[in-house]
Structures are given as C-alpha cells and as structure tokens.
C-alpha cells in the first residue's frame, strides 16, 4: 500500500533509488552515532541508559 502511494507521488525510479540507499544510510547513521558518543562526553549519553547510570554514581 505504501509502495503504491510512493509510486504515484514520487515515481518508481526514485523509490528504487531510495531502497538501494537505505542500507548505506543506516550504516553511516550508526557510524555517526558511535563517533558522536566517542568524541563527546560519553557520560552525557550513557546517563540515559538505566543499567550504566547506576555504575557511575558520584559519592559525595
């Protein structure tokens, strides 16, 4: 159903191009996410992960 709507709006050629690029976009998005966590303050992101959050509690 979604394919029929996309074919009418965008065209069959462009739907095929997008389908071919989806795996690449997912891979580069994953690499970008990992690079973002690596090059920034990783605790900023890992504080939202429940299991990891409890390991880094600051003793005051």
UniProtKB/TrEMBL annotation:
Any single Gene Ontology cellular-component annotation: mitochondrial inner membrane
InterPro entries for this protein: Single_a-helix_sf, UQCR
GO annotation terms (biological process): mitochondrial electron transport, ubiquinol to cytochrome c
Pfam families linked to this entry: UCR_6-4kD (PF08997)
SUPFAM superfamilies per record: Subunit XI (6.4 kDa protein) of cytochrome bc1 complex (Ubiquinol-cytochrome c reductase) (SSF81518)
Name of the molecule in the record: Chromosome 1 SCAF14640, whole genome shotgun sequence
Native species: Tetraodon nigroviridis (Spotted green pufferfish)
